[in-house]
Description:
Blueprint: H1 2-24, H2 32-54, H3 58-87, H4 100-106, H5 109-118, E1 129-130, E2 133-134, H6 135-155
Antiparallel strand pairs: 1-2
Helix pairs in contact: 1-2, 1-6, 2-3, 2-6, 3-6
Amino acid sequence: MRAAYLLGFVGCAALIAYALFVQYVQHIEPCPLCILQRVVFIAMGAIFLVGGLHAPRRAGRWVYAALVSIAGIVGIGISWRHLWLQSLPPDQVPSCGPGLSYMLDAFPLMQTIKMVFTGSGECAAVNWSFLGLAMPAWALIAYVILIGWGLWFARKALPAGLLR
């Protein structure tokens, strides 16, 4: 089980590494919703890492699966909102707000989160796509896969010799 959790951690770390590559090498700045999606991947990665270090048995595996699932569901919600904003006609896109770092400095956390979710025009821009899907769609797919990964290994024991 340890290797399965650590592989989940590596998957999350790879997703964050790619996001940083896109930001710093391809010079595509993340919008506030992109940053929140990164936070969720970091949280999921941390849960997988702790699970890998802990190597839980039966009931413990379900605890880690539940924590990964909760974080992943939050990520799915953020990605869904992001995709919805990107699907709006240009005349219905909310106006751009201040940057996330400014909002975090100037407003309480809950008000900042509310402002991010009520709309931000920069989140509606599609700056990157692969196979016709924008980055939040790929993030949503990754959340589903990571949730499935956590639930699969909570339910099943690994076959002898696999990932050991």
